[in-house]
Amino acid sequence: QVQLVESGGGLVQAGGSLRLSCAASGRTVSLYLMGWFRQAPGKEREFVAAISRSGGSTKYADSVKGRFAISRDSAKNTVYLQMNSLKPEDTAVYYCAADWTTSRVLPTTQSHDYDYWGQGTQVTVSS
Q1: Average pLDDT taken over every residue of the chain
Q2: In DSSP terms, which residues pair with 78 in a beta bridge?
Q3: Contact assessment for residue 40 and residue 32, using Cβ atoms and an 8 Å cutoff
Q4: Strand 10-13 to strand 121-126: parallel, antiparallel, or no bridges (unpaired)?
Q5: How many C-beta atoms lie closer than 10 Å to residue 1's C-beta?
Q6: How many CA atoms lie within 13 A of 2 on its CB side?
Q7: Is 92 exposed, middle or buried (0-12, 13-18, 19+ CB in 10 A)?
């Protein structure tokens, strides 16, 4: 099984940028489809971005398309979420997740498809 630890969150002004990292241990992250989700206070957890094992296929929520970019570095066993042009509505706890399902090739947007989760990192965007 894999352990996931997120980092890189913080407080940023609207229009600013942050890069979140998700460091994996226990198993190589290249075995997993990887995703980022977020949960704002009082709201359901929502999909943000996901990436295939090869990195060749990505998916994004409409709300972040064109502003966020997910990537992976197998050598560092890490997945990243580059967040640009941040808005106050991006404020949330961001979670990294890993999908172990070997029969699935393309990343999924459904949280119940992911088997392993990190503890989350807080992102706060001030207006």
Answers
A1: 96
A2: 23, 73
A3: no
A4: parallel
A5: 8
A6: 25
A7: buried
For 12, the token pair is 């940023």
How many residues comprise the chain? 127
Residue 87 has what pLDDT?
98
Nearest to 94 by CA among 11, 37, 19, 17: 37
DSSP notation for 29-80:
GGGSEEEEEEE-TTS--EEEEEE-SSS--EEE-TTTTTTEEEEEETTTTEEE
Quick one: tokens of 11?
């407080």
Confidence of residue 108 (pLDDT cuts 50, 70, 90): very high
Percent of the chain with pLDDT over 70: 100
Cβ contacts of residue 54 below 8 Å, gap of 6+? Answer: none
